[in-house]
């Protein structure tokens, strides 16, 4: 994870160049086992429970997360088997995937710890929005929300000056976020995040949405997959709520793509405000 990222030469495949220049954390064996069972014709909840329970620490962390206000049903799960019954195997697998990502990507600095806290809230917001608007599968929204900025964590770990680059990109009201990263580091977090998603066997919708989640023109692109457009649109709402939760009145990214997102999702200004208020209430619980 500490090899130097180089900017690909003209005509080169940028994904191929990244594969050669940056070591992405390998897919955890536990995730591979989960995905193998989920890909079977009839996934077994019992088998998935046994896979998760094989790692006691992960099982405990998953149970705590499953019982949080964003995911818990009317009843608290007392075991992994109960969590699977209450939430479903796909949502439990999505939560487990997120926990494995946090374990695989170092978080031994204040910046990375803050990154994971924010990513967790973004994933929760994506689940909430998916359910409220009945758009897509909540587990897919969760996975995208957690993984869309994993490239940020990799860049923070690799480049001592990346935190300043991130702040500069976040404050730039005219250029795309990734243009600033490319200029300073020869690569960007969406390309790295897409690569990680592909290497970890995540769905193609998640991988492509990660790659395009700062390219808001994709929302209006009829040739793009609807699932990808929806995830990018929902991510803008989630980002706006996160900014408000952190006490920031404005959001540069929302200014760039918020109107497109609301138009695509069919939300009026009042409906958007109400939805964001509900999200803030959930964050405060």
Question: What would your notes on this structure say?
Answer:
This protein is mainly α and 285 residues long. The chain folds into two domains: 26-104, no CATH class; 107-285, Orthogonal Bundle (Hypothetical protein af1432). It has 16 helices and no strands. The chain has helices spanning 14-21, 29-38, 45-53, 56-66, 80-87, 89-104, 110-133, 138-147, 150-158, 162-171, 177-185, 189-199, 204-212, 226-245, 252-265, 269-284. α7 packs across α14, α8 (138-147) crosses α13 (204-212) and α9 crosses α12 (189-199). It is globular, with a radius of gyration of 19 Å. The relative contact order is 0.11.
> So, CATH architecture of the largest domain?
Orthogonal Bundle
CATH superfamily of the largest domain, called what?
Hypothetical protein af1432
User: Nearest-angstrom radius of gyration?
Assistant: 19 Å
Top-tier CATH class of the largest domain: Mainly Alpha
Strand content: under 5%
Stretches where pLDDT falls below 50 for ≥5 residues? 1-10
Rough outline? globular
Number of helices: 16
End-to-end separation in angstroms reads 36 Å
Largest sheet: none
Order of helices and strands: HHHHHHHHHHHHHHHH
Helical amount: 55-70%
Secondary structure class reads: mainly alpha
